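PROTEIN DESIGN WORKSHEET
SECTION A - STRUCTURE
LENGTH: 321
TOKENS:
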């Protein structure tokens, strides 16, 4: 049995791919095609590349319908469905809020109340008008912006995994930035791919076995993990993170980490973001998920109590915290 390892820098992260099989040449060819698809999707979906289809939509859709590729149109339809299923917690139009809070290009700042109200008026998937017959996208008002950052990586991983399946690859593990994963088949001499998720208090610079919160077994499944770590700033003794609730316009406060496993990396990516936004109110969404989806939400409590874990199908590895 041969093993091929490949990697790619794209979508502001590192994608890594491990493939097992009998023919190393065929594995490498399939893996390179899969990574090339991720690169292609980056050029199509990038919020920052002025030549991408998303940038073209953002520049023109307020003036009238913009025709897009059918696959991108279907992705936007999926995003609208997930927006409805999560009661607005997942929303691709959060970019005006991100700019208002200063997270687009910096570490953030408190927004002016009037500016925040204006940004909120430009936020909401109801402002994105999709014409299924013409494959067009239009915005209901100027200033609306699409940013696929909360679903694009999952979509890219899913599309890349599909290329591997079509090429006949039966055993492979692909991740983007260690937070979005798709596992095909099983690794060598194992029943499944086991993915460890660290405890929220773990030091990322010095991980060890005691820091593992949960181990998620995967076989022909995807996994997405979202967390509040990243850009943040302090003001008036409070820390404000870069994950925003599109419904309120404010940074989320409650959940610190979420994980979703299921058949679709696209769906897992979106749902892990939605659960992070919903925080301690995520229970209703979690219980409504399809039986094929497993989920976990870790919420912060006061200093003495530590964390509260809500889970459906993902068992806590070490509950003694």
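SECTION B - SEQUENCE
RESIDUE ASSIGNMENT:
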């Amino acid at each position: 049995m041969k093993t091929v390892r490949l990697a790619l820098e794209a979508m502001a992260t590192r994608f890594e791919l491990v493939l097992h099989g009998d023919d190393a040449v065929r594995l490498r060819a399939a893996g390179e095609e899969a990574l090339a698809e991720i690169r292609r999707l980056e050029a199509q979906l990038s919020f920052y590349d002025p030549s991408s289809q998303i940038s073209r939509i953002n520049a023109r859709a307020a003036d009238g319908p913009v025709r897009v590729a059918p696959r991108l149109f279907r992705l936007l339809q999926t995003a609208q469905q997930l927006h409805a299923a999560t009661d607005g917690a997942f929303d691709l139009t959060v970019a005006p809020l991100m700019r208002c809070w200063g997270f687009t290009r910096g570490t953030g700042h408190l927004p002016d109340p009037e500016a925040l109200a204006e940004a909120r008026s430009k936020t909401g998937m109801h402002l994105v008008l999709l014409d299924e017959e013409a494959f067009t996208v239009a915005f209901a008002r100027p200033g609306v912006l699409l940013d696929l950052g909360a679903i694009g990586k999952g979509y890219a991983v899913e599309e890349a995994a599909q290329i591997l399946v079509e090429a006949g690859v039966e055993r492979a593990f692909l991740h983007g930035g260690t937070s979005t994963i798709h596992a095909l088949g099983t690794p060598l001499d194992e029943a499944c791919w086991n993915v460890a998720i660290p405890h929220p208090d773990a030091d990322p610079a010095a991980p060890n076995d005691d820091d593992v919160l949960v181990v998620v077994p995967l076989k022909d499944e995807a996994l997405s993990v979202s967390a509040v770590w990243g850009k943040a700033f302090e003001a008036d003794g409070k820390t404000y993170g870069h994950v925003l609730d599109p419904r309120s316009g404010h940074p989320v406060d409650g959940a610190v980490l979420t994980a979703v496993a299921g058949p679709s990396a696209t769906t897992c990516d979106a749902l892990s973001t939605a659960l992070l936004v919903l925080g301690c109110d995520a229970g209703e969404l979690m219980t409504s998920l399809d039986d094929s989806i497993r989920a976990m939400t870790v919420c912060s409590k006061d200093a003495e109590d530590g964390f509260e874990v809500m889970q459906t199908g993902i068992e806590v590895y070490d509950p003694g915290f």
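SECTION C - NOTES
Residues 287 and 312 are 7 Å apart (CA to CA).
The two ends are 41 Å apart (CA to CA).
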